[in-house]
């Protein structure tokens, strides 16, 4: 492994906020210090695509003024936060990592972004990602790949690689990413940070540039479980602008995560420990399971036999929805328009051909085929039926256990370019994460040691629908065993 590493751990969120509230730390000074680090580190890691410095410093000044007056501050007062570029911010470039949206500046804030700012967060800028969140390595961005801060010759994972790398390299205290088939959990594992997949409907998708609408979810990255729980508590909840957001009450996840894991029943599915799992990853995860046993958890085997159908099911459902969602990017409504077109039809064709990357085109073609007349029943409809079977399996499993633990990814972070020529090998990097995406349940990736070469390994803790609190309790127990 190269010795070039940019790992730096930020102070815990609660400590920074307390310093700002007491006046010992100015939010404006904190923001400036983060911009100085971004200026030094970003040329190598390519984490940030754009900075929102004017907006951030105005927010920091507002927080400092409120603190000076002794006003009650929000839970994220003065905390520097980065935002994945698939979430819109009013007036800020929002490209989704694609050339087709270059120059697009939306007229409104995503609900999750607005909630962060209402809680006092200082929004530093927009983070690099795979184009339209399609990828498992963050090598598909039109603006170049993100490098892993642990080892810059390796990928940070995708598609939220920028969001994971920003936290691992202390270029933000916490960040927001999105997860469609593992795009928060897998990069969290590769970069050695905590990443959270909320239950579908737990966080509003209003203002999220869609990839696959029935799978897309917004969630936090942090360097510890409690900070991630705090961030989820801020962005969770019903939103009238998103018909799929749930009115289910939001727990105080930070407080819940402090309750300990003693007595919880933990399921271990044999299907996640079969052929293809790296021996060192297996060893670290089995050690993590032993630490849960030592913390008073009851370990039980569970069976999820339809897991082997998850990858083909996911790539049928996700690509079908992507082909429909991306039809709107045609050179007329947003961003890029081809200058070399004599007719309207040519303008549509050339704009999409010139501005979409290879992976996006591949998925649009796969999805269009799956939805076409004569193939819908054989592919898309069948995939939806298998998805129901996968969801039912998890429901039955959670009747017997409180949480399920698995590896997050079959390997540690791989090298840049190692899998770009083999899309199927790249898709298999999501093999342990797509089932939770299809089932709509929640999950947390928590660091669980490292390989002999120093590459992070993540454990995935899955919880039942809207039971993020239990997943956080288990993740805290794993985290405590590592410290």
From TrEMBL:
GO CC terms in record: glutamyl-tRNA(Gln) amidotransferase complex
Keyword Nucleotide-binding: yes
EC primary class: ligase
Annotated ranges, domain Amidase: 33-470
PROSITE patterns: AMIDASES
Active-site positions on this chain: 84 (charge relay system), 159 (charge relay system), 183 (acyl-ester intermediate)
Keyword Nucleotide-binding: yes
Pfam families: Amidase
Subunit and partners: Heterotrimer of A, B and C subunits.
Family: Belongs to the amidase family. GatA subfamily.
UniProt protein name: Glutamyl-tRNA(Gln) amidotransferase subunit A
